[in-house]
Amino acid sequence: MAPMLANQQGTTLMNMRANTAQPAYGILIEELRGPVTARLGGKIIAQSRRAKVMYETRQPAAIYFPRDDIHSCLSAVNGHQTFCPFKGTAGYQDLQLGQDCIGNAAWSYDDALPEASGIAGHVSFMPDAKVEIDLGSNQLDVPEYGSISGPLIDWLLREAAYLPTPEEFTQRLSEKLVEQGVHLSRLSVMAWSLHPMIAGKNFIWSRASGKVTTYAPSYEIHDHPAFQNSPLRHVSNGLGGIRQRLDLEQPSDAFPILNDLREEGATDYVAMPLPFSDGRINVLTVASHHPKGFTTENLGLIFECSAVIARYYEVFMQRENAQSLLETYVGKRTGARVLGGEIRRGDGDDIDAAIMFCDLRGSTRLEEELGRTAYIELLNNFFETASTIVHDHEGEVLKFIGDAVLAVFPAGENPAEARAQALQSARAIVAALDAMGDDPGQRRSECSIGLAYGGVTYGNVGSRERLDFTVIGQAANIAARLGDYGKSCGHTIVVSRDLLEAPEQATPLGSVSLHNVSRPVEAFAVSMAIDPGQRSSN
Hints:
Number of strands: 25
Shape: elongated
Protein name: Adenylate cyclase, family 3 (Some protein containing HAMP domain protein)
Oligomer: single chain
Organism: Phaeobacter inhibens
Mean pLDDT: 84
Largest sheet: 8 strands, mixed
Structural class: alpha+beta
Domain Guanylate cyclase: 354-483
InterPro entries: A/G_cyclase, Adenylyl/Guanylyl_Cyclase_3/4, DUF427, DUF427_sf, Nucleotide_cyclase
Strand content: 25-35%
């Protein structure tokens, strides 16, 4: 909505159809004839015979007055700024009329980019400032902008949806922009993610290499000085886009990366928001090495397509987010099964597997001694140690239960290997927890581990609204009970007979009665020494 526009008789003017349709995004600045007047509450606040009108694709016509013809009702520039890739950086002023003050009522592009140099030193008024513009004898003749089309639009509509990865999409997007005449030397997209360790994915295409490089920065990026003073932070925080010409005699060095790009020969740089539907703001940046940088048509094409481009990246990131969240909460193997469609109650398989139940010992006492914060840190170290070792031995952590870890080692075609991997994991966990005491910054921890082997159901159980992907079966129950039994008899690792390839690998404990297990279980205590034959079996 533009300020109210009227002729000398006070009749609101309608936009007039232009003679020629413009097929590309454009900016057109024209001088107005005779006196043009701006009023607020009936009082003249600006009057000029040198006023101009600016037509911009899909934007309302904007009337600009030379600063010298503005009456003394404007404050000094107040520090608020917005960025336009076509016009440059806009500064704002408040409008003071008597006791009333309208904040950010007027804007100007004092250092306008070449495409908008005609309005440099001119002032326009915000639509919500209630300023009435009397155009005098002028009539607006707004260009009729046509639909923007070409290779990029056709590709987005027909082919892009079939690309399987964001890397391939980024490469083809860059190539299509070049094909349509955009003077592009570099394109990057920063897409934020939902991942416990990765802040997002940064896809960077370079025309020199013709390839896409992907970076996955950790959350420490938010505290890194290079990010703190970067266009990525500026745009993703909702502060608007950025356009900087890099070939000027006195270029702006507001962001260090601009100097790096300039040294590589870049002449123009733009960063613009790629908003996702959930409100997160991702960032698209483009750079050019062309002597004249980007044209208005170049940037207009990207700007017009940016919402569609954002949706493609949102689809890619939603899938990556779903996969990373599932892997985080239910494990990699289980997450893949859920993504593969095993999402209904009862979905699952009957498998043979080695089951591990690893419990942190003395946790109640530790929490009392250490305090909640230090105890949670110790608990996280315990979980991290156990999970890493299980994963390194081809197992999967299904869940954390209080201060315990439940893990599964599916047998597949090699039951002996699954048993060996489970046993080696148990020994490695005990050794790693003991070694923590050698680090002055950490505390030595002790655990109790129960191992069993047998048939289990591996799949979804629960209510219709809340499911849990887990293992159900006697082997899982026995593994948990053997861990408890080990605490009472002073053994760190206790296993059932069916987990051992040969009984001589461990110390027999006889047939033991376990809580909620109907029959006695032949149990063995496992020492920390690894039998050479067991090494070779893996």
